[in-house]
Amino acid sequence: MSSNNDMQILVGRTEQLIAAITNAILSSAEVAAERIELAANVARIQQRMSAFGSVLETVGAQKEMLAKQLPNATGPSKTLLLKQIAMLASQEVAILSKAGVAEPTAVAALAEVEAPREPSPQSASSPTHRRDGRRFLRVAPGTKRDRNGTADTKEGHDEE
């Protein structure tokens, strides 16, 4: 037990030493200047990313508006709408590239966002699990909510 107590004392002293060194470093004028410069750079980057986000939202809204018009369009107007949507998609890729996202990654991300979502096969009305104390049991499809589709057993053992 003595070694455990000695270790706790050593850890406490180490933490005090680290805290004292940290306070000394942070109180120096050089570190304060660096922190101000870093904070300014972070603020500049946040503003830039916010601006990119705003532009992306605007372009996305324009694409959505054109996509809503697409089902009713025919002939040359449909071709024009498709061309405009393609141009807006390339603008989105360019914006993401300026934000530092590689072009293939930007294309893949935009494709994922724009992909139609399939409805989930399980609805909220048909649970997949039920609580049994601290455990969750899988509920077999088509069984009642209070059963899990297994044979009648008590506490996991067959009746005798």
Task: Please name the defining characteristics of this protein.
single chain; 160 residues; mainly alpha; 2 strands; 5% strand
What does this structure look like?
With 160 residues, the protein is mostly helical. The protein has a domain at 7-114. It is 64% helix and 5% strand. A two-stranded antiparallel sheet has the order 1-2. Helix 2 packs antiparallel against helix 3 and helix 3 (75-98) packs across helix 4 (103-114). It starts with a helix and ends in a 22-residue tail after the last strand.
Instruction: For the largest sheet, list the strands in their spatial order.
Output: 1-2
Question: What class do helices, strands and sheet pairing give?
Answer: mainly alpha
Please give the number of β-strands. Answer: 2
Low-confidence stretches: none
Mean pLDDT: 80
Radius of gyration: 30 Å
Major sheet size, sense and barrel closure: 2 strands, antiparallel
- Tell me the helix content: 55-70%
